[in-house]
Structures are given as structure tokens and as C-alpha cells.
Recover the amino acids of this structure.
């Protein structure tokens, strides 16, 4: 149990620094954009409405973003660039970051322990499992690239 608490604490510090830093970079980028030649474009009524909505309702999105893969950085950057007030952002950061740290500490340590036992007790099976996992990832990447390369009118049968 101490190992999980220590890991969760370390991951919590990491996620607070990383997500808070992303928010700060977004804040600076937004401030820079407001002073640049794009200032006219981002001062439209539509943009201001979107900015107010994010400032008011973005905190739950930020908190839930920590439970996703790949959306977390975008949500924190957008919250910063759209000037979400710190009293709304910080609770979302603290709650979402805590959930992220606990999930990764428990599930991550569990997976590492299983892999460690697998490699220690049955090395060949461990190597085979990693090879299957790598092949599956490569297959998904190849499938997505091929599908993205096809134009809307093409079909897989025509490409063969």
C-alpha cells in the first residue's frame, strides 16, 4: 500500500506541474494572440461567447479530460488560452489530477507487477505477449494510415 501511495503522490506532483504548465503556456499564447495581428479575428462576438462559455463551464471538461488519453493537454491549453479564471481552473486541476494519479498508480503498478511476474516465471510467454502487443499496435497504425490515404470515393476492393 505504501508503494501505491508513494507512486500516486509522485504522479500527482508530476501531473500538477505538467497540466499547470500547459495552462500557463496557453494563457501566455492567448495573451500574445490578443496583442498580435490576429486580435481582430479573436475579438468577434462569436469568439467572445465561446470564451465566456469556456470560462464558465470549462472546469468540468478540464477535470474529466484527465480520464482521457490525448485530450488532457488540449483541454488545459484551451483553458489557459481562453483565460479560464484560476478559481475555476485550480479545483478542476486538483480533482482531475488526483483521479489521474490514482488510476495510473494503481493500474500502472498492477500491470508492471503482472509483466514482471510473467517475465520472471515464463520469459517466453512474456516475450510473446509483448510481440503480440507490438504487432497489434503496428496493425492499427497501418490500418489507420491506409484508411486515411483512401479518398472518399475509393474502396478497399478497388485498391487491391
Amino acid at each position: 500500500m505504501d508503494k501505491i501511495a508513494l507512486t500516486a503522490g509522485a504522479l500527482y506532483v508530476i501531473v500538477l506541474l505538467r497540466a499547470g504548465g500547459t495552462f500557463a503556456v496557453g494563457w501566455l499564447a492567448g495573451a500574445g494572440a490578443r496583442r498580435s495581428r490576429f486580435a481582430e479575428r479573436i475579438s468577434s462576438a462569436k469568439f467572445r461567447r465561446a470564451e465566456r462559455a469556456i470560462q464558465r463551464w470549462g472546469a468540468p471538461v478540464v477535470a474529466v479530460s484527465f480520464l482521457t488519453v490525448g485530450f488532457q493537454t488540449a483541454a488545459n491549453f484551451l483553458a489557459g488560452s481562453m483565460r479560464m479564471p484560476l478559481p475555476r481552473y485550480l479545483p478542476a486541476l486538483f480533482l482531475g489530477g488526483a483521479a489521474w494519479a490514482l488510476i495510473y498508480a494503481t493500474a500502472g503498478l498492477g500491470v508492471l507487477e503482472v509483466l514482471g511476474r510473467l517475465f520472471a516465471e515464463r520469459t517466453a510467454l512474456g516475450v510473446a505477449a509483448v510481440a503480440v502487443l507490438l504487432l497489434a499496435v503496428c496493425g492499427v497504425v497501418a490500418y489507420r494510415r491506409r484508411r486515411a490515404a483512401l479518398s472518399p470515393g475509393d474502396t478497399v476492393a478497388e485498391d487491391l
The CA atoms of residues 4 and 158 lie 53 Å apart. The longest helix spans residues 86-121. The radius of gyration is 22 Å. The mean pLDDT is 86.
